[in-house]
Amino acid sequence: MLRRATMLAALIALPFVLAALLVSPPAPHAAERARQGFVGSTTCASCHASEAAAWRDSDHARAMAAATPANVLGDFSGVTATDGRHTASFRREGDRYVIRTDGPGGAVADFTITETFGVDPLQQYLVLFPDGRRQALPWAWDSRPREEGGQRWFHLMAQDPLPATDPLHWTEREQTWNFMCASCHSTGLVRGYDAATDRYDTTWTEISVGCESCHGPGAAHVAWAQSGARGEDPHRGLTVNLRDRSGGAWRIAADDPRGIARWDGPPRQSSAAQVETCAPCHARARPLVADPSPGQRFLDTHAPLLLERGEYHADGQIQGEVFEWGSFAQSRMSRAGVVCADCHDPHRGTLRAEGNAVCAQCHLPARFDTAEHHRHAPGTPGAQCVSCHMPAVTYMGVDRRRDHAFSIPRPDVAAQVGAPDTCTSCHTDRPQSWAARQIVEWFGPRRRDDPYPALAIAAGREGRPGADALLAAVATDRAQAPILRATAVSLLPMPPSPATAQAIGATLLDPDPLVRAAALRMLEVLHPRNRLHAARFLTDETRLVRIEAARALAPVPVAALPEAARSAFARAWEELLASERVAAERPEAHVNIAALLAARGDMVGAEAAYRDALARDATHLGALVNLADFEAQRGRHEAAEAALRRAVAAHPGEAEAHHALALALARQGRTADALAPLAEAARLRPEEPRYGYVQAIALNQLRRTEDAVAVLRANLERHPRHRDSLMALATIERDRSNFSEAERLAAAAVALDASDREAAALLAQLRGLRQRLPGIR
């Protein structure tokens, strides 16, 4: 995949701007709405006037709107905006709003705005193209007050040249509203993608986020209200029952020295429903079903992003644009039963109280809203709870969003894992060591939150020795948040060590489905005969678990499955393929399907899926690289090489393309031809030691030993703990009779991991040589 792909959702799952039809497709006719059970927010407002009044001014109500004078905030008075790389002009023709900028193929043209997208702190604009795609313009209107720097046009990716061929260009797939954004900005959405024609007929029951986006279709509720038999249905005809009728409340006990509220009453009946209603649109997640409706369990409709490098720091802080769910899912508050509506008014979308008062609902002000606790002057920004416990990151240029993990500041841990911390983010002239000393001075050396998970995640990401044991301990600690445990599972090193194997075995039985799904994903690296443990999960109650079980069993012949599991596999297999087809407009979905079909031995189907991927993007890197591997497995080496040369030509700056081409040449015995692309891969990605290592191995095979040694030494200067480079250089030095240097390198490899048998054997051999041959150097 392209390394920049993680930026895609960062444009808020940006509405993707397609070019020039003037009129939006009509919403479904009344008969269709009735069939679907949607009645519209106007109907809801007839009985719920106060809630509707609060909602009308919310960001949800203004999430998307027709481009009319009442809705457009930007300056379309004929102004031109430029940032040195990109230029656009904005004008109004009656009630028609037009932007002139570079469009498909890079040609400058006029594009008519069809919808607005959001309002605060920025507003984006959509353009409808003839094939039904809506594309989000890269120029956004900063809607903040002028005194805050707003009331201006700005480009969302000002530092990127974005030629028309770039997937992130506003006319390309990474900016297609229909796929990236639509389901969370409109109500009753049907994406309407036709894979045969590669067109959209997207419809909605309401253009913005209305009542039924959260409460579900309202027809049954209206019927209930009109029937007069109100005591007969405890759910009142609602698809999603969000009201808490448990009779409990959050209370701070008078004798609780912590001063923190606990839930007092029966279990909250609506707590899971509340979080799972918000999660699909407030999480980075891959949809598993087309056009999911409210009321379905989150993991039945979506596969959420785990705490991946580049998206989250190793200590769980938000980094990329990951929205709120992933950080909230890590929090103690989530595990205690706190839900979104405890802090946020669900209709206005605003906080339930201002400043520290929202926290004071559950945290005794006499204990927490004091200088003795926050160590800042009252009334200053540092005295605000969010300043220390909800660090913020700015996305899309002006959109400041807060981390919802509610973590305790740990500058000592942040320093160890290379993450920012809230203290030195404000005190920019001070190092993290200063901040760590201050916290120890104020609160003592013992902290209630354990830094261990962050250190384990960092070790796993870096592939450090001993990471398996650290990650295994986190993965199997059920006191930790499920998203953290699932992340630890996903980082377990393979092939499995005893610690890894035990952790996977334990987490397959974890009560949380997110953890079970992560454990099943790890089975993919095992031989098919060792994956049969997945069969028992083909009937799991959670769709995400079932499809991961089917994925793990993809290469296992049906005859090898227990007879009782065969029909369950067939059902789960169809669910898996259907989950990939949800993104049928995306080339990567067809690449995934091709790999699955090839694993089942369906080479014809796999080849067709690769063709479908390349039909959507003839230069897609993942499709070309995986197609090449597919062709090589079938012995079609010329076809494999041709695909990889296309990849290199289309992506000359991607190390993966050069490296894959080199490996393909080497497999044909053309090691000399592989040297140039190997060198280019290593040059492009010096931060990836594997590329330099493979280049050195090829050089050594060609008896260019001095060149190989030079590459390995340069690699080790940048990555002194890279085990394979240490071992390769130690072996070369041994073969050149530089025994002392070889012994030093082998000892360094053993120091990385005392259980490394190969390194230990090499070191023992070298020490034996030194004892038998005194005086060797």
Automatic annotation (TrEMBL):
Domain Cytochrome c-552/4, residue spans: 43-68, 175-216
Gene3D superfamilies reported in the protein's UniProt record: Flavocytochrome C3, Chain A (1.10.1130.10), Tetratricopeptide repeat domain (1.25.40.10)
Alphabetized CDD domains for the sequence: Cytochrom_C3 (cd08168)
Pfam families (UniProt xref): Cytochrome_C554, Paired_CXXCH_1, TPR_16, TPR_19
Signal sequence, start to end: 1-30
Gene Ontology molecular functions: oxidoreductase activity
Entry keyword annotation includes Signal: yes
Domain Doubled CXXCH motif residues, every copy: 340-364
Keywords: Signal
Alphabetized InterPro entries for the sequence: Cyt_c-552/4, Multihaem_cyt_sf, Multiheme_Cytochr_ET, Paired_CXXCH_1, TPR-like_helical_dom_sf, TPR_rpt
Name of the protein: Tetratricopeptide repeat protein
Record organism: Neoroseomonas soli
